[in-house]
Structure formats: C-alpha cells, structure tokens
Give the backbone structure.
Amino acid sequence: MLRTREVLRQASPFAATATTTITDELRNMRRDRRRAEEKIAIATRSQTDATPKVPKRTTIEYPFSTNEGLRQEYTNPWGFVRLGRVLEDLDSLAGNIAFLHCDDDDPETFPNLIVTASVDEVKLHERLCLDKDMQLSGAVTWVGRSSLNIRMDVRQGKCKDSLADASPSLSAEFTFVARNPVTGKSAVVHPLLPSSPEETALFQMGEEKATRRKQARVAAASPKPGIASNAAESSEEVELRRALLGESRNRRELPGLSDGDAVCMDTTGLENVFVCQPQHQSTAPATASCHALVLDVYVEESYAKFLQPAVDMAGRVFGGFIMRRAFELAFSTCYMFGGMRPSLLDVDECVDPMRRPGDSGAGGSSVQITFQKPVDVGNLMRLKSCILHTEPETGVVHVEVEAFVMTPECVSSALSNTFNFRFRSNKSDGGKCLKRVLPSTEEEARRMMQCIIARGNSQ
C-alpha cells in the first residue's frame, strides 16, 4: 500500500470555502503534479496506449474522532454529516480514479479529458454520523471502449481499524467518458482485467447494464412510425392519469368543495438561481482551507501521475458541486412540504423525456443522474424543484430537481441535469400525514406516471 500524506495550509476557522477541504486537497495534488510534469516534458501527442490494467482501490479517511476542524466542516444543523458535501467528495475522488485508469503514464502525451456522464445507484444504507470515523473508497469496475464505471463506497467505524470490515453506509456508481483533448472526440481507454471473482461479477454487471443502455438509446432514437409516445401505457395507467388530472381540475375550479388531503404539483416547488464562479470549476485556483488537516490517501499501487483532475477542462464546473446544490434544494423542498426533517433514501430513477414507460431494464429501475450538458464558469445555473409524487402510507416523498444552464447574452437556456431524490418524511411521532400530489397539466401527469411506474418496477 502506498501512503501519501499532504498537509493543508492553516487558515482562519471562519474562512469561507466554495468546496470541501477534501476536494480542495485533491485539487492541490493535481496542481502540484502538473507543475512537475511541465518541468519533465511538454506533451506533443495524444495517448494511443491501450494496455489492460487491473482494478486499483483508492481510499480517503475522515478522522472525525480526532479532528475537530474537519468535524465542524462536515456537520449539519442536527449534528449529523452534511450529506451534500459527501456527494461532492464522491464525485471528486471518482473522477481522479477514472483519470488514473485512463492515464498512460507517459509525460509526452496529452492526458485525456474525463467527463462525468452519469451517477447511478446512489443509496444511503444508514445515516452518516460524526461520532464515527468515515472512509471513502472506490475502484474501476467496468470499462468499455471510451467509458468506465467507478464503484464508490462510504464506510463508518468507531475507530480507524474497524473501517475495513464495516458494511457500506452509502454506495454509488459513477460513469465517466474519455475525450481526446485535441479533437474533442471519444478516446480509447485501457481495458480492465478483473483479478478476483468479485471483480469479475461486477464487470459482468457493468457489461449487462451497458448493453441495456445502448438498446434503450437505439429504441428512443428510432420510434416506430405511426405509434404515439404514450402507446406503451396500459389501460390502467391511462385511467389513472386521467383520474389524477380530473381530480386536479376539480380542485382548481371548485376549491371550496375540495378536501385538504392533496395539493397541486405546481404549488410545491422551490427555485434557486446563481452564477457559476471560478471556485466551482474542476481545476479551481488554490484556496486556503478552513483548518489544518492531515489527509491520508491510500492507493494499492503507486502511480506516476497521482490524483489528476476529475475533469481537466478549463472553465467547466465539476459535477459534484451541482449534485450538492441539487440535493440541498431537494432536501429543503421536502422539508417544507412534509413539515419534518426528511432523511435521504436514494437517488431515484432519472425522469428522461425520451424514456418510455417500462424501459428501465431488467430487474428494476435504472437509478441514475444524467449529465446532459456541461456547465461553464460564468453561466447562470437555475435549479427548479417540485414534489413529483408522495406515498402517504410509507412517508416516502419523491422530489425532482431540474438544472438549467442559462446564457443571457445568447438568449439561451438548456436543461443540464434532472435529479430525482427519494426521501422519507416519517410521521410516526404524531405529526400530520403527507398530502397527495396532483398534476395540473399533461406534462406533469406524464412525469408523475413515469415515477410511479419506475417505483413499481423496482419493487
């Protein structure tokens, strides 16, 4: 095991940071390594080596039990770990792992650009607590021609020695694609050589998932002529959609005669607009950390270019920041709707306007966050949330967050991401029951039906 220890600079405990200390330190490592490479040689050609590589696990430890400054940075108002910051760190480390696998270790070649394509199967198995040390780790599990999957886990333990044997408290799978930095086209990545039965099983699962995605893309790109987009709906689904729209219409037109157990979807939303700053990009300038921290990073084997950029594209905002802001808006939306602090269950199926009902694949729903459009520094980012569906009997709330990239100078607004979070708002302590949500338009009804169908397929 190679152990690399880097010490962050001391700063005021009240200094503001745009990203987490862990993410800042990963960036410092990348920046230092790039300066060293500039002294060795100047890259003159693209990567062509495609030698197979075996999976290598990378681990970062969060010593909450011994580091008060780190504990303060990651605490939320209720004394637990601030989950949005962990999602941000997951994206940063997963991107570095992807870069290490794609790198040919040749200083004369340009490093490939690694872009986050999607985040799948984000599941919180147990609440993250500050009274336990935490460990974030990940490894490559599947590789295609120009894409690769990274399996990430978060573990907790009372002490450092107990972390290795602990079950994952949070798990996620990231998909990245490699791009040639000169041409912008897809770049071939190193094949993967699984070396254990567990790694082989994960590789086969990744292969099957990639095949299903390809089939779904082909089906969505070439719809059968003469068939409407909702032709795949069963008669029961059509009747349910019409009944929901009818009840919503009656509630709007006859509000004095309606009961109070339901609300219209368009009244449940929140919105946030902000400018994407230089500190949010994947290779942001160095900033002072809010406290002194010793960051321990463990890698199973030494690499010449250790911990490179998650997305080495100047001026691009990295996905972890967007994911954190979307989660925090979704949390606030659910909190205001349910009247009680919610807990995250998972990131549910992405509602894709091109996906037909039932296209989630064999064995359940495709739990996914899809990054459809890159976000540049200086863009306006508009996040819009709404309650997509509720399950009053179980206290489950489905929150959708849409992220739009806006460029006022070009009169342009485009959808970048669609996030679907699933929370539990538990009313077992005597609080009010959750209200049902009703669609006001055909579009809202379609999105709600996709959510209901996805949940039915996964159960």
Observations:
- Residues 89 and 305 are 20 Å apart (CA to CA).
- The longest strand covers residues 412-424.
- The longest helix spans residues 197-221.
